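subagent[fold] <- orchestrator: predict structure for attached chain, return tokens only, no commentary.
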Amino acid sequence: MHARFAPIVVLAAGLAVTGSAVAQTASTIAEAQRGALVTLKGTVERITDDDEFRLTDHTGSLTVYIGPTPVPVGVGERISVTGRMDDGLIRELYARSLTRQNGTTVTFEHRYD
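subagent[fold] -> orchestrator:
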């Protein structure tokens, strides 16, 4: 007997995900699991490149990649960011969207998705 996998829709932290992905809302950077779809809140620690920055909270920090889009936030800004954690050795978040402190949401389209 062959198992069939039907597409699913998961709602988490205002994010709709279709397919077999399961959303995880990590409450801290330290809790974010490799390969998981997460939403993290923190402060922009520094801009490290045209299309990436460091996000920090009370448990640590990680690189957030938003390429090929230029970084739309400033150092010291509090944000919420949603994306997929890299499943490699380096803890990095590939952002799909971020919400600025003023409520503005910016979405990112990646060529590798």
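orchestrator: received. Logging for downstream: The CA atoms of residues 99 and 105 lie 4 Å apart. The chain has one domain: 24-107.
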